[in-house]
Structures are given as structure tokens and as C-alpha cells.
Records
---
Amino acid sequence: MSDLISQNLNMIFKTPKGETVHALKDLNFTLKKGELLTVLGPSGCGKTTLLNITAGFIRPTSGVITLNNKEIDGPGVERGMVFQQGALFEWLTVAENVNFGLRMKKEDPIQTAKKVDEWLEIVGLQGFGNTPTYQLSGGMQQRVALARCLINDPDLILMDEPLGALDALTREKMQSLVLKIWKETGKTIILITHSVEEALLLGERLYVMAPRPGRIHKEYNLPFASMGLKEDLREIKKNKDFSAKREEILEMIWNMEEEIMGKDI
Amino acid sequence: MLTQIITFLIFVAVIGCILYGRRLIKTEKVDAVFGNPERALGGTHWVIVGSSFLLLIWLYYSWDIAKGFYPKSANELCQVAKVNDSLLGLKYQFPIEEREFKSTSQIKKENKNLNLILNEIQASQEIDNQQKTVLVGFINKTSQLIPLLTNEDLIENETKQKINDITGKINLLTENFQKPDYPFETEQELNERLKAVSEEGGWGIVKVQSGTGSIENTMEVPLIPATDRGLKFHTAAQELNLISDEFFKLRNHNPQFKNQIKQLKDDIKSYRKDLSDSEEVASTYAKNIVKIARRIEFASIYPPNALNKMQNAIIKFDNAQIKAQGGLRFIDILLFPAGTIVASGPSCSEQGSGRWLPKPSDTFNKFILMSKPSVGYKDIPLLWIDMVDVSKMIGFILPDWIADILPGEYPVHTKDGIVKENFKGNVLKVVTGDFKLFKVPVPYGHIWDSFLRVFLGLVFGIIIGVPLGLFMGLNRFAKGFFDPLIELYRPVPPLAWAPLIISVLGIDNTGKVFLLFMVSLSIMIISARAGASGTQLSKIHAAHSLGASKRQILRHVIFPNSLPEILTGIRVAVGMCWGTLVAAEFLAGTTGIGFVENVAKKYFQYEVIWITIFIMGMLGLLFDITLRKIIDKTIPWRGKG
């Protein structure tokens, strides 16, 4: 029973102007161990709020969210997080960034160094251990972020648009890497994204969220992630099923946007 | 000699660099359009031209070039200035450099004054018509005095004779002056003069009074004529002084004038006596009329043509002396820009840029002299090393009460007058530093004192300010609690605190270090606070989810992340502290660079002032470069995160 279970999760913010924003309303879902969930939705639908609650950075207004039957009430090592960008410690080298968690736990330095080498190899950064992070490209930085999160061996990995700031080519490589890591480690992953394609490609399950109040609009179970483990990702994109799903979801999001912004002429 | 070589080198460098620059423009391929900053890259040769020009302007306007190439010119110009000074009074009587005769302008002026009083009296409400008539009568009588002086028929023979005498003397002087061997100096006189010249020293020589350790002002301009040409002018000036005195003693008072003015004075005196207290206004007018009459009496007013011959004689002498100056005149015009040597009475001085802009050579010599530890400034070297026993430092650090709290009593002398040390006494010796260990060199002096004050103030500011600032950036209580305190004292200019702090904590190091501590503290708090509150939330979140504790996040995330702000803050604080320190040392103190400048100011030691300015600039630059190096070394990620 190492599931992530959310029960009637509500989050209400107060803006500085005094308005209340219902960021999440009555969110109920269960995520089984080893599942890869992608969350998609227009901006302002509460994706990041959901992630922050799951990570324990903020507390929900009401409702309970549990991981392994334990209520989440603060940040913890069992839930690792990968951010969009800028979350690396640029005053440290790649290796120091990666071993940050272990160093904070004061683990044996020799063991730690070994683990760092292993993980750098997995994310494809062998030999970069002593490079300062500010000298790395965007894609490499995200690889470091992945390794830094994974070395702590978390039960759940939360990814907040980790590939959002990367160029198309690097992005595709990184998508394969995420799938590879998911397969090899069998971790539960929640990945938030803006890109419909990415959500379809990576998500074993997909939630499309709707704004005002933030809620799960539609849920999909998708075959593409398991296909991606064997096939080339570009081949999957040519798949008819894939295109149909993509159009369907795009339509859905367009409608949501129109609801908010008013219809463009 | 050095000045000459440097001047020559500067010209060579400037011309060479300009030629090189022009050739570069011709051969360079055009690879950047206008506006591309690449066009501003490089250009060391222009740096050379720029610094050469700066040095050249300094050399030129401080008259160092004149001193280098014509070291005796100042002495000679001093003698010329003496002649000009003696001639001045006589020249002013005539339209030589003025527009009109002195007599004419005096008459114009006094007539104007009489008219003013006349108008005032006639318009006055406070005096009756009868008195007005009397006062107008006085005015008429006063103005009638002037024709008595300007009438050629009335001038006395005695006066005429004296004017002729003076004219004759001037003509004789002119004649003698043009003779090559004037002023007919004897061998003995020559030897005495040359001896005096060598004792006096040259232009801008630095004298050190041995033993006192203090630096005297540089001799501005040597007075005693060193050259034959100088002696000529010197002697002529002395003779001219006598002639001028004779002329100004002379009065053109004929008997009619004397009678008239005596009568006028008596009339006004008796008139004022008869006036009652209530008629004070009329009395004041009468008094003012007498004043004008007296001015007419003592002004050298002569008939229009009475002084013609004398005027010609003066012009002739003036031409002769200008001719005798020869090449000196061109040196004066070309190499003494923005001023010249001016004499007043017996002494000469530089007036103009050469006065406040010290000559590079003098400044350099004085700096070398001041750098010597035996000279220094006010018996304290600029920067030197003293051998201090380590025991003194141990005694300073260890508190004395360590000995007091030990059991037992301090030793008491015996009846034989012998003091036998016991353990407690020996401990006291250790904690007060009363023992010998080994000596280490410790720097001291004005520069070191200033440096140490800035350093200590800064270190205390950093030690307290950085943790407090980080705390304030992260904690609501700390921010709220300390903010009023900081905001209360920070907006006050630090120098406004200086008088208070110096009077409370003393003029020595304590007060100044505390003042600098205050300056650096607020800057460090603000920068550390900005650094702490500017940490990206994602980094904090990442650290949290990596399992770091609060203390670890502070130590490993927030502190390194604030380091750029903190270091920039230190750089700002150093600049502020440096500025405040110098001003605080102006206010009060006994050592430090600012103190040196302040004392130098009191004695018009322009060289020392410029030396201190230079030292301060260099030290400020040194601080900044050091910090920039540290910043580049410690935070290479700045601006790349």
C-alpha cells in the first residue's frame, strides 16, 4: 500500500487584493506505486499548487493527502522534486549538487561518491563531476537535477515542468531519459507539463485539469508510455491514436481558455 | 634635470602615439559599424597620450617646466615684480595703465559725492529751509576748493621745483639702469650677496629641520637677487621706492587753498556746535561734507599739465625696464601660465596655479622625505614597522582579573625593602604582559592607523551585520524588532554622528572604529537581508525536499546564495568607511592620513595636501581592486545562475 491518495483536497488562496481564489476543489485521486501520472491544463488550473501540496511546501485548506498511509504535512526526503529551472545550487559543482541530500544526512563520503558516479552515469553526465553547474547547458542542468533528486531514493518523484525551458531536440532526449529512469527504477512519478504531446508521450495516466476552481476535468489511461519504452518516440507521434488524442485534448483546453478569456474573433 | 627629461619624454610619447594611432586608423580593416562597442576596445596608445597630457598639464600649470628649464627665472621675476610693485603707485597717477589721470578721477568722484549730498539735503523732510541754505553753502564752498588745486597759476614754485626734482631722479635712474654695470656693485658686495643667495637656497627647495622631524614649508620663491639682471631690478626697485615715497609726501597746497579749507572746516565746526540735539540730521550732513573736503585735501590733485614731464619720465623708465627684462618676459608669458610671481613689499610669492598646484618634482621629493621613518609627519612615520614583544599582545588579550581571582595575596615588601614574588604575582606579570618573549614586527604610522580603523570597523560591521541581516531577511520578529533601530540611524549621514561619537568615545581609535562600525553595519545588514530574501524559492524548496534542516539550509543554501550581495555590500561599505574615516580624522585625532591633510591645510603645505590626496586615492583603489579580486574568486557564478 504505497499509494498516493488524495481525499477531498481543497486549496483556497487569498490574493493581496482580498479576493479568494479556489485553486483546488475537492480533488480525489489515487496513484498506485510505480505509476507515471502526467498533469495537463491551462495556466491557473492549480497544477503547481497540487504539486506543492504533495511536496509538503504548502498545507491544503482542507482535505487529506497521504503517501504510504502517512499524511503529508511537510517536505520530506521520500518525495523528491525536480523544478523547471534555477533550482540547482550554482555555487556547487555537479557532484556537490548531486550529493547534496546525502551530505545533509551526513552519509559516508566514500559511499556517497560511488553513488554519485553511478547516477551521473545513468543521466549521461559521467566525467562532469567537478564542473561548476553554471557552465552547463539547460539540458545538462536538468540531468543534474534529476540525479540530485533520484540519489535520495524517493518513493515519489514530483516534476514541475522539468523540460519546459529546453529546446525541442534536448527535450526529446530528456523525455526518453525520464521514461528510461521510470522503467529502471520503478518509481511513482507525477509530471506536470504544458505540452500536450509530452503529457501523452510520458503519461501512463493523464489528468487534464480545468481552472476556476481547479479540478480534474478528464482522466485518461494511455498506452504510449509503455510503447515509448520500446519504440522511438517520434514513431509514436505518427501513431493515429496519438494524433486523435492530441486533437481531442487540445480542443478541450482551447474551450477552457475561451471560457476564461472570452472567444477571440 | 628629471623634469626636463620627463617633459621631453612626454612630448616624444605623445607625438609617437598620435602617429601610431593615425597609422592604425589607416591600416585597420573596417570590421565594426558605428555603435558597435568593439570600436571602443583596445587603444593603449591613447591611454599613454591621455596620461601624458595629464602629467604635462600638471608639469605646466604647476610651473615645474619653468623650474626645470629655467631654475633662476622665479628669482629674477621676483626682482621684476619688486620693480612693478614700487612703480605701481606712481603709474596709477597717470593714464598709463588707467583710463584717466588719478586727479581727474578723484575730481569726478568727489563732485559726484557732493551732488549726492546736495540732492539728499534738498529732498529731505527733516531739516528746515534755513538750514538747507546753510548746508548748500557749505557744499558750494567745498566744490570751490577743487579749482584752487587745478589752477596752474596758483601752484607754488616750491611744489614745481620738487616735481622737477622727482622727475630728474627718475630720469637719472633710467639712464643708470640702462648702463650694463648698474648698480656698480663692489667685489665685497658681490661676495656677500652670493653667500646670502646660497644660504637662502633655490626655488622650491625642501628644508628639513634636523632633529625636530617636522617638514618646513618649501621656500616658495628666493628673494635675494641671484643674477646680475636680478640685482639690477632689485636696486632699481629700492630707488623707486624712495622716489615714490617722496612724491606721495608732496602736497599741492597753495596759501589760498589752505585758507579756504581752514575757513570751511571752522565754519562747519561752529555750525555743528550750535545745532541742538534734535537737529542731528543736519549735523550728520555737515559732517559728511567735511569728510569730502578732507578727501580733496589729501588726494594728490594737480593742475592738468603740471606732471607731464614726470609722466614721460615714468613711461621712459617703464619701457627701459621692460626692455631690460629681455627673454625673461617670454618665459613669464609662456612658462608661468595662469599667474606669475608677485611681490608685495619685500617678499615674493607665486600667485596663480603654481601656488596651489605643487610642482611634481617638489611633491615627489617631499613624499620621499616624508616616507623616511625618521621624518614622517608630526614625528610619526607614514608607514613603518616597529618591533613589538609578543608578551605585550598576550598581556593585552588576557584580562587582568585572571590574577585577581587566584587564591592567595599579592606579595608584600619585607622590612628590608625586598619584594619576593609569589605565584599570584607571577601570574599578574603574565596577564599584564610584563615579561619577555620574542619580538615580532608590527606596522605603525599614519597610513597603517587609517587602514586599521577602516579594517576593524568593517570587520565588526560584517561579523554583526551579516548574521543579523540574514536573520532579518528570514524572520518576521527579527525584521520587525531591528528595523526601527536601523532605519533610525541609517539615513543620518555618518559624519553627522561623528561629533557625538567622538566626544563620547574619544578622539582615538575607539570613536572612529565605532563610527565606521556604524557605517558598515547598516550597509551589511541591508545587503545580507536583500541576499537572504532574494533567494529563489525553488532553491529553498529543493533543499527542503532533499532533506536539509533549517540550519543546513541557512548554511548551505541561503548564505552562499546571498554571498554576491554581501560582497557587493562590503565593497560599498569599504568606500563609505574610507570617506567617513578621512572626514572623521579631519574633525579630531592625532594620527591618520586625514589628520595629516588637516594639519597640512593649516600651514598651507600644498605639497603635503596633494600627497595625502594621492595616498588616499591609492589606498582606496587598492581596497577596491582587492575586493574585486576576492569577488571574482569567491563568486564566479555571479550573473550566470
Note: Chain B has a mean pLDDT of 88.
---
Amino acid sequence: MDVPRLFILNETIRNLYFHVCMWFAMMILFIVSLVYSIKYLRTGSIQQDISASQFAAVGVLMGLLGYITGAIWANYTWVTDQGQSLAAVLKEPKLIGAAIALLIYGAYFVLRGSFTDIDKRARVSAVYNIFAFSMLFPSIWIIPRLVGSLHPGSPGSDSGNPALNYNDIDSRLRLVFYPAIIGWTLLGVWIATLRIRLNQIADKELIK
Amino acid sequence: MIQRTIALFRKDMLLEWRQLHTFYGILLYVAATIFVIYLAMDSSPNANTWNSLFWVIQLFVCVNTVAKSFLQEGRGRMLYFHSITAPEEFILAKLLFNALLMLIMNIVSLGLFFLFLGNPVSDSFKFLAISMIGGISLSLVFTVMSAIASKAQHNAALIAILGFPVILPNLLLIMRLSKTAFAEIFDAGAVWQLTGLVLMMDVLVIVLSIILFPFLWKD
């Protein structure tokens, strides 16, 4: 299918179907994980804790995939096309935000690993999940809007969205873009449910 | 509730006063670190390096200062607090005390920075105010991290692992904000916008800790 040809982006605009959608999927999965953490603190059932941790794990997977697709894309547009150095690219506000998100969930799993008591692990990691999520996401949503960057949609875009200029998206792109968001998210949900069921079988005695 | 919070706060002050060696230990840590930087630098650093060094030092000082706030409370004492106070009062007192402790460390390290590494700051009072705001934000976040890490084993190392990614956005905001004291020109209103953002994050941390601490508290 044909795509609009924008300056610098050209054919790489197709990365919208992968990179942007994976970030969407990651955010949705992290939000689901947050909801399960809150549910755990309300009910105290281990089942919610398993769901929270597995959705977070799949969120990290989507985040890594989004990072990789973004890096490949940036290699062709920023580094080779615009002659940016790698050090400058890594200081991109959006890359910093993404890296922080992955670090936080890395820390979440380190925290989980440091407990032997299952109930304590579930409770403390739920607290950390809620705290870290609420510290992280305002900054991911606010900071990129305050500072300029190379990222498409960013410099002087009227839409106010730092990662995506809605005026740039052609309806030909939308045709694939919206289903792709749903598709990647559902793929993530499917992987997460498989892992949740696996864990439920492993901890059968714990869940009454 | 305020009364009991203040009583707990005073108890922390009193404990610190009776164990002044830990306080001096942290002061020595600050002084030694800044002295090492002074020796490692050939000449006084330029404004940008100075600013980044200052905040990196603040980060590590904060980890060291705040980390012990929950570690020093033994199991038995926690049970005792559990029986006499509500968790909200306990965490508020801790937040208040650590913020105060961090403010002192902040002023001391700023003085040492001026002494050893020169003064590239064009508006020292503005920088002092910004560094105090920053120090409070750091101490609030690390207090909560200390509370979380105290529930796990190997907690001293865990504080850094848990805290650094969480504090990063905050720290970036503060570092950017502190550049106004180096006479960097900002857009009109941007300084207040950034200050407001940092303060909002502080409020967020306090509210979250009040909501979430009761869950950490009961064992």
C-alpha cells in the first residue's frame, strides 16, 4: 500500500505500524498491570498479583521491541540522514523517558526477586508498581512537551502531541495504524494470559 | 493527628541528636566527596560541569542520608509504633524529618562547593532556593523508597536500584531549572512552570505515600 512521502521520513514512515503501536501496547499493558496492583491491594488475592506481574513483564517486552524498532529507524533517519551523533540521539527526551520506564520495571522485577515470602512480595511490589507508575507517567507525558526534539511530530507541531503529529497522518496510514494498535495490544494480552495461566497452574495450591 | 506527627518528628530529632556520630558521618561523607572532586579537577569547573557535579553529589548524599531512616528502626520498635500511631502520621513525620536533614546537607554541600570548586553561579540566592526545592524532592522520594526497601532483604543496595529510575525525571527537571541561576535565558514563564512542576511532583509523592504506606506498614 502506498504511503505519503514526508521529508526525511520517506518510506520509513511505515515504522508507524510497528514502533508507535508497540509503545501504545506497552502503555496499555502497564496500565493494566497498575489496575491489577490496585486490585491486589484491595482484595489481597494472589491471583491479582500474578496478573499484575505478568502484564508488566509483557509490557517490558513490548517496550524493548519498541526500543529496537525505534533504534533501527533512528539509525536510518537521524544518524545517517541528518548526521546526528549517537550521543545526541540518546539524549532525546523521549528516549530518556522510555529508558526510565524500562528501568523502573526492571527494578520492579528485582524487587520481586528479593522476597521469599509470597504475600509480602505481592504487597510491597504492588506498592512500588503504583508509586513508580504514578511518578513516571506524568513525566513521560509532560516533559517531552516542554523541550524540543528531533522526533517526528515534535518541533513546533500544533497538535501538542510530542510523538505524533495528527495532521501528518494520512488516512492511508490510519487504515493500518489503528488496527495495528489494537493488534499489538491484543497480542500482548494474549501472551500475558498464557503466562498468567501457566503461573496459576504452578501455584495451584496457593490459589484456593 | 498533627500533634502526634510532631511528636514522632521530635522523637526522630532526639534520636539523631543522641546519635550525633551518624550525623557527623554523613557530614564527613559530604566533605570527603567534595574534596576528592576538588583534587581531581585541575581548575575550577565551568558552570555546566559544576551544576551536574552538584546534583550528582546531592543524589548520593540523599541516598546515604535517607537510607537509614527505616533501616534503623528494628522489628520490635516498628511493632511498638504500630500499636501507638497511625501509619499516615508515621510516614509524615519521617518525610518531614528527612526533608529537614536533607536541607541541612544541602546547605553544607553548597557551602563546600563554593569553597572548593569556585562559584560560577550568577545568582547565588536563586541557586540556594532551587537547590533546597531539589533537596526536598530528593528526600521525599528516597524516604518512600527506603520504606519499600526496608521490607526486603539486601535493602541498602535495593534503595538505589528502586530509587534512581523514579527520581530521574524529577532530577532532570531540577537540573534544568537550576540553569536559570547560571543566567541562562528561559522563555517567559518557563521558570515558574518548571518550579510548579517540581512542587506538584512533591505533592504527588506525599499524597501517594500517605495512601500507600498503610499497606507497607502491616506485616
Note: The helical segments of chain B are 2-18, 20-40, 47-71, 75-84, 87-117, 124-149, 155-178, 190-217.
